[in-house]
Amino acid sequence: MAPKTAHMTDARRALIVAASILALALSGCAGGAADSDPPPTDTETTAPADGGDAGDEDSDGDAGDEGDGDAGDGGEVASLGTITIGTTIYQVVESINCELRESDLATPVIDITAIGVSSAGEEALFFAYTDEVGGVADSRVDYAGPEGIYSSEPGAATFTYSDGIVNGASTIVDEAETETLMAQFRFELPAELQEC
Fold it and tell me: In angstroms, how far is the first alpha carbon of the chain from the final one?
C-alpha cells in the first residue's frame, strides 16, 4: 500500500506546485506594487471585523498574536498564529479545516490548509493532514514558499488539534531530497469544515 500512499502524496505535491505558481504569480504582480502598500488602509478597517471573528474564547490564550498584526504587511489581517520554516516565521492569515474526501486507499482523519505571510511580505502555503492506512495513522506536512517545495517523510510529522488550535512540528525535505528544514506550527483552526 505504500506505493499507493506515495501516489496520493504526488497528487498533493502537484496541487502544491500549481498553487505555488499561482501564489508566486500573484506576489510578483503585488511585488511591483510595493508603493501601493499604504492604500490598503481600507482593508485595515475590515481587519477588526476579521479579527473579531477569529477572536473566540479559544484565542484569549493567544492574545499576543493580535499584537503581531501591527507588524509590516501582516498588519492587514489579524494573525491566527504562526508557522516557522527553518528560521523564517510566517503569520497565519487564513486557516481552513478541509472537508474529508473518502478514499479506497486510506481513511482521512484531518486535512488542514493554511496561508502564512512573513514580515517581508512573502506568502507560504502549508498543508497538514493525517490519513489512516490499515488502522495506522500517517501524519504529513507539505509546504510551498520562498524556500521551495518541501514535504515530510512518512511518520515524521506530529501534530494535535484540540480546542480550536493546531500545534505540531515536522522535519520537511525538498523535492530533490538534498535539504531538510524544521517546520513548527501553532495556529487557530475553525471547527467548521470547508471544501478545499
Answer: 25
**Calpha distance 158→102 (Å, rounded):** 22
Angle (nearest 5°) at CA 170 between 188 and 24: 70
Site of grid cell 512540528: 169
Q: Please tell me the distance from the alpha carbon of residue 165 to that of residue 81, in angstroms, as a whole number.
A: 9
What are the pLDDT digits (tens) for 47-83? 333 333 333 434 344 434 443 444 444 445 689 999 9
Which amino acid is residue 80, in one-letter code? Answer: L
Angle at 90 between CA 150 and CA 30, to 5 degrees: 95
Cell of 134: 490499515
**Which three cell numbers mark 149?**
517545495
Question: What CA–CA distance (Å, rounded) separates 56 from 164?
Answer: 9
For the stretch 9-21, pLDDT in tens is: 454 544 444 444 4
